[in-house]
Design goal:
Layout: H1 3-15, E1 19-21, E2 25-27, E3 31-34, E4 39-41, E5 54-57, H2 60-77, H3 90-97, H4 104-108, H5 110-127, E6 131-135, E7 138-144, E8 153-161, E9 164-176, E10 179-186, H6 190-193, H7 196-207, E11 213-217, H8 221-233, H9 238-266, E12 273-277, E13 285-290
Parallel strand pairs: 3-5, 10-11
Antiparallel strand pairs: 1-2, 3-4, 6-7, 7-8, 8-9, 9-10, 11-13, 12-13
Helix pairs in contact: 1-3, 2-3, 2-5, 8-9
Amino acid sequence: MDKLSIFYNGILKEASCGRVHLYAPYNIIFNTLILEDNIKIESKVEYEDVIIPTLIIDNKELFNSLLEEYVSKALLFYDEENYPNENILKEKFIMTVLWSNATFDDFANPIPFLKKQINYLDNWNTYNHGVISKEQGIIMRLTKNSVTDKSPYNLLIELNYNHMIIPIANISVGIDNNSINIYSINSMSESHIKDDNIVNSILNYLTTRGIKNVEIPSFLITRWNSLIIKSFYSSNSDLQREKKISMGEKKLCVNVNEFFIQLSNYLQNQDNIEITANPLDIDFKLHLKLTTNSK
């Protein structure tokens, strides 16, 4: 079966029910509207607290071309060990988990979303050169992620202190032209945020490579919905269910933005970072602009 048949005849119909059949049920739910064909695939499943986005395909020919290009490049990018099961249909798996990293805006405008995802994969070879920066004892390098992660690679930051390598942060990123999209930040403490050497090394790494903009999705709706659907099928009590969901929400929605709010507060008297738009100002992302100048 070709990629497009898998997508239109399998994934879209199954996603409307909240569970795509892979090696095991994959919890993802969205409606689909194909404008030129006047086709709407609408969910009839009711999960409490689920907010269902709608994938709007308004240029089917271009959408199909980009989707096929993304899948072909993803098949080459991800290694065999990135898949949870050796017998899994990789094309279906890739096209399903792709939408778990989409925001409401991405569902409404999938053409720019697909182009961005393709650029992420293309830019791996451009930016991945082993240790990509080594300043003030701070080591930065890119590491490849799993296909199920929020982005195709991480920016790993470590500190070489007295000949010991100390992990500082593991930042899930994708690089799209002159922008870096950040999906999660693990392990970075407030003391690291206030460390001039660490912060300036990160900013210097980005700006010297022509990266001038930072975008941070504030809410990945399908990952949030996945938690709700998973809890629906679990045997946990309501109290345990609420606790699991609130922990998941914190991990998905708060971690990144808290970091950048702290960072922007720390750099408020400098010129090298500026918040140009908060989530919901123009979309569901926090937008930053970077410069190399400081007061």
